[in-house]
Design goal:
Number of strands: 4
Structural class: mainly alpha
Helix content: over 70%
Radius of gyration: 25 Å
Shape: globular
Length: 570
């Protein structure tokens, strides 16, 4: 009864606050128009024709041999990448948390490897793979004298995606392993169990939900990935590339919409399992922190092989990234290794590099603060306020995480190229910079919201209530009390959004028009043509911009923040 009265009082307070009510209404409109509406249009395109409700479009695309093959291929790659990334991530996390590393070099190496996939375009490793192991690759052609090696296809995609996504699993599992109470494992050791048996009977069962969570996150990332299969896939079709080619090659928007619905259905099912089952189970299994410090493993029979294995993998990943700037400095990769800066020069003189970097930088810089502020507002409403639409706002803002970029791009084409609901509303939006900014915001919103919710749950409600008691309205409380307390999360959301936007490709490649040149689209275009020197030059400059942004923001947080540095998983 008391709980019901409290909820009723909260609702009355909310309705008496016009700023808060207006904010909630505007948020609902934004989320509905720019997330739900494009997805609804895809469903309408797929299921409804002039004769009414029909499955004819689905039957037509399912009759296409390349589409059926693409579904099988996508699931095969997704499962392999998910399993491999989770296991390699577990290996790295276990070594960092359980094994006594002899030097700080190893810790630094792990940090670099965990950061690289975040600050680089999603297809950099595909470029490196071709340049190292392709027909003109340094390793295959010049070291091993193999002249007909092909890296394109299933194994090329799987290896590149695993190297790209395993750091995400490593960051997730590192936190889980740190929260295991050492006394549980030490009790098993005291009873005579070997380290392997302790791991299999105590540690592994405790982190199993978290491992499943890491697998599903990577699986979703893998099947939604567009850039890597496009560059290194060759004739190996995946759902993301098939959808793209269906709309750009076959000009079949309705068929592409039906294909997009199939991909969306797969990712949504996996997302729901990951978000509402495994993530909750993982949190319940490992609640709180370890009661005391863990005794690290010093036995050389364990430390030496694990350290060598992790060091080898980490160094290989770093070499793959180092390949990119070298690819931009060699005259002709694979044939003429004389150093030159002509490719960097051509980026700005011949290929409109200034416009590409200016457009990408400005659009990303506009979207970043909007995304960070929106994320904090949504987080505030979800954690600190009680109202009927709260569940809707939280669910829809997180939904964008499960929507592949290619699917969202097609939804925007179908939803906004002809106006909203067949009217002139938003008709002028398609083909403008505004729609690219909106896509950037929608794609980055879930990451910032998740970070903001975590930060806000640590703030005592009484701090804000005292400001309300002194007569402050909701806007003033949010701006002067709440936001300063979570400024680390705000700044983190800002830089994460900027990096994600400037390195994005899957959603925007279908929406960008000749009016705007974006760096990632340029890199993808030159990589497809086999112009690796120019592609590497663009990619090298982009990595410098994004890595520099993260370093600058970390310095800002260090001097003006409250507690912590930006982490790649935020």
């Amino acid at each position: 009864m008391a709980k019901s009265q409290s909820a009723s009082l909260d609702r009355k307070k909310l309705m008496a606050d016009p700023i808060m009510v207006t904010t909630i209404v505007l948020l609902i409109v934004f989320l509905t128009v720019f997330i739900l509406y494009p997805l609804a249009i895809l469903l309408v395109d797929s299921f409804i024709s002039e004769s009414g409700l029909t499955l004819a479009t689905f039957r037509r695309v399912m009759d296409l041999a390349n589409f059926r093959r693409a579904i099988t291929n996508t699931l095969k790659v997704g499962f392999l990448v998910g399993i491999a990334s989770a296991l390699i991530g577990l290996l790295f996390a276990y070594v960092e948390v359980y094994v006594k590393l002899r030097t700080r070099f190893m810790e630094g190496l792990f940090k670099v490897v965990s950061m690289l996939p975040v600050v680089s375009p999603p297809f950099v490793l595909s470029l490196s793979m071709i340049m190292l192991f392709g027909k003109a690759g340094i390793i295959t052609r010049f070291l091993l004298h193999i002249y007909d090696n092909s890296v394109y296809g299933f194994w090329g995609i799987a290896i590149v995606q695993t190297l790209t996504f395993f750091p995400v699993c490593y960051m997730m599992l590192k936190g889980l392993l740190k929260n295991i109470d050492p006394s549980l494992e030490e009790a098993a050791r005291d009873m005579g169990a070997s380290r392997f048996k302790v791991f299999m009977t105590v540690t592994f069962p405790l982190i199993l939900p978290g491992l499943g969570n890491a697998f599903l996150v990577t699986f979703i990332e893998s099947i939604a990935d567009f850039a890597n299969p496009m560059i290194i896939g060759g004739s190996y079709d995946t759902l993301a590339t098939t959808i793209y080619l269906q709309i750009t090659g076959a000009y079949d928007k309705q068929g592409a919409a039906a294909m997009a619905v199939v991909l969306l259905a797969i990712t949504l099912v996996m997302f729901i399992i990951q978000k509402y089952y495994l993530e909750a189970k993982s949190t319940a299994t490992l609640s709180g922190k370890a009661s005391r410090e863990r005794m690290l493993i010093t036995d050389k029979s364990v430390t030496v092989p694990l350290t060598i294995l992790c060091s080898g993998l980490a160094l290989f990943v770093i070499i793959m990234y180092i390949c990119v700037p070298f690819g931009a400095m060699f005259r002709t990769w694979g044939y003429d290794f004389h150093l030159t800066f002509k490719w960097f020069g051509q980026v700005f003189t011949k290929y409109k590099g200034f416009k590409a970097f200016k457009d990408s930088f400005i659009l990303s810089l506009i979207s970043a603060p909007i995304t960070a502020l929106l994320s904090m507002i949504i987080s505030y409403l979800v954690v600190k306020r009680k109202f009927k639409a709260k569940g809707f706002i939280e669910a829809v803002s997180m939904l964008a995480m499960a929507v592949p970029g290619t699917v969202l791009g097609i939804g925007y084409i179908r939803g906004f190229s002809g106006g909203l609901f067949g009217t002139g509303i938003f008709q002028g939006l398609y083909g403008t910079g505004a729609i690219l900014i909106i896509v950037f915001i929608v794609r980055s919103l879930p990451t910032g919201t998740r970070s903001g919710i975590s930060a806000l749950r640590q703030i005592d409600k009484s701090i804000e209530e005292s400001a309300y008691d002194m007569g402050a309205d909701s806007f003033k409380v949010f701006m002067t009390v709440t936001l300063p307390l979570i400024k680390d999360s705000f700044l983190s959301g800002f830089v994460t959004s900027f990096v994600r936007s400037i390195t994005a490709i899957s959603a925007i490649i279908l929406l960008v028009t000749p009016s705007y040149l974006l760096i990632t689209v340029q890199i993808n275009e030159f990589a497809e043509k086999g112009s690796y020197g120019i592609a590497c030059a663009f990619a090298s400059i982009l990595i410098l911009i994004t890595y520099g942004s993260v370093l600058i923001m970390n310095l800002v947080i260090k001097h003006f923040g409250t507690s912590r540095k930006i982490k790649p998983t935020e």
